[in-house]
Amino acid sequence: MEDGLEQEFNSLDAQREACENYIASQKGNGWICLPQRYDDGGFSGGNTKRPALQQLLDDCEAGLVDIIVVYKIDRLSRSICDFADLTKKFDEWGVQFVAVTQEINTATSAGRMMLNILITFAQYEREVITERVRDKMAATRKKGKFVGGSVPMGYDVRDKKLVVNFAEAEVIRKIFQRYVEIQSPKLIAMELNEQNIKTKQGKKWDTAHVNRILSNHTYVGEIKYKDAICKGEQEAIVPRDLWDRVKEIQRSIDPQSDHSRRQETIAPLKSILRCGHCGGAMMPTYSNKGGRRYYYYLCSKDSKRAISECPVKQIPSGDIEALVRKQLQKMLSDISLVMRFAEQSGMSPVEVVECFREEFWNEISPGEYNRLLILLVEKAIVWEDRLELELKTCGVKSLLEEFKNE
User: Fold this and answer.
1) Which residues pair with 104 in a beta bridge?
2) What are the tens digits of pLDDT across the range 123-138?
3) With 60 as the cut, is the pLDDT of residue 142 above it?
4) Options 3.30.390.50, 3.90.1750.20, 3.20.20.150, 3.40.50.700; which CATH number does 155-261 get?
């Protein structure tokens, strides 16, 4: 056997002896070697699902272990990323870590410094992986290939390519044709619901969904990447002349309107935004000046005072909504959160990165963004000089499950 486990005194015994000797040298510090052995003979160090390691983690969480002693770091994990994640758990449980042959002991300042250096390299490795995934997806998108995510109605995925679903394609063509005839997404949605025709996800139609269909370049054999339109490898299901006619009608109705981004709500932060100084809700309101309507979020507690005391008072809705979106996008690209979301949802880190890729933020409609806020954000607390977001753990899992099922 390659592992040498059949030998009377194998490498696991040698490592155990070295660790026991180290523990004995720390007897003056009150160290006592536990009789329990956490050996994973025959298992790869690159696998964190090893039975003995899982038992060790359970015992650490239960408070049965104060210090973990290993021969070398790679005896715990050969993946620096996995090792960094494990050390975060150890910190949460108050468990220290020692590698007897590598001068790493988190009970000392020098040991913690060495550990931080390793974690820094782990962070770098994760960021490099994220950049590679993002660059690969961008290059793939520019070539007109399907990069995953939500599959548009009218298509199915086969061998990582979009292929026409003929029954759904008929519905898509009908939507485009009916828009030319009646020019009302709302009426089209009502007709589809009356005919008991469901969306790709088996839901009822609404105006926003019809607008997204009418603005999806996929249906004319194209792929939209940022502001560029690339030729896609999928077969078109809407004739070009019909597509052009729909675009012409949309521009004639409202030249300034982007129908794929039609405003579905004027207060997406309602019930989410709170004043950090007063602790009250920031309520949506508006004022009319010069024939225009301006929207704000107003501190509800301060509005009831005879004399204003709140440094926040009211904030232009466009400013705070843009700031929340920017900060949420930044948080959802943070590698530590990506790793945590992956663990909570059962998805791989690469899949989580794909869900919140840059194209997602470019393509999301106001209604979809509003749903994302409801699922993910517990509170958005605004202060005079900063903004704090509190995310919902359960919301992250629900959202990612939706991505997986689409």
Assistant:
1) 99
2) 666 667 667 766 666 6
3) no
4) 3.90.1750.20
